[in-house]
C-alpha cells in the first residue's frame, strides 16, 4: 500500500508527517508556500486555508508524487541521524552565514544609494547567526547527548524548547525573504549582490530542511506517545 492509500485522508494528515513520508512533498510545499518545518503539526487542509491556497490543486500535486520518487536517504539509526545533522547542517551553517554577512555588508556599503539595496540584511544575518549558534550548542551539549544515551523515551522538555527556537528561526527566514524580495536580484546587480542572494536562498533552503528533519523525523522519536525507532 502506498503512503497516500493509507486509511487517513490526506487532507487530515499533518503537513510535517506528509513531508517526512512522501517523497517530493517538500518541493510541492515550497511551491505552494506551505510551512512544513516550523508548523508541521497543522493538518494539510488547514495549512492550505491559512495560506489561501487552492486545496484541490495542492492535494493533486501531492497525489501525483506518490510512488514516483524516493525519499532522500537519511540514516534510520538515531545516532547516525544526529551525526548527519551535525555534519550536513550545523557545520554548514557555521560556514555559510559568516560569509553571507561579509557579502551583505559589502553590498550595503557599496550600493547604499541604489534602489532595492537590502539595508539591514547584514545585521539580520548577524542576529540569525547568534540565535542559531546558541540553539545548536544546546543541541550539541544537552539534547543530542541525551538522545544518544537514552536511545528512546520522552525528552519532552528540551524538545519543546528546540521547537520554540525553530519557530523563531522560521520568522527570521521570513524577514530575510521579505527584505530581499524573496532573493530577487535587481537588474544590473553586481556579482557580489548576485552571490549574496544565491547564498542567502541556499541558507534558507538548508535551514528549512534542517528544521524539517529535526521536527518531523528526529524529535518525534523522543516525545511522549510517539513511536520510536
UniProtKB/TrEMBL annotation:
> Tell me, what's a Pfam family for it?
ScdA_N
Query: Where is the protein localized?
Result: Cytoplasm
Q: Report whether Metal-binding shows up as a keyword of the record.
A: yes
Q: What is its main location?
A: cytoplasm
**Every Hemerythrin-like domain range:** 82-221
Keywords in alphabetical order = Cytoplasm, Iron, Metal-binding
Q: What is this protein called?
A: Iron-sulfur cluster repair di-iron protein
Record the organism: Sphingosinicella rhizophila
Chain's gene name: ric
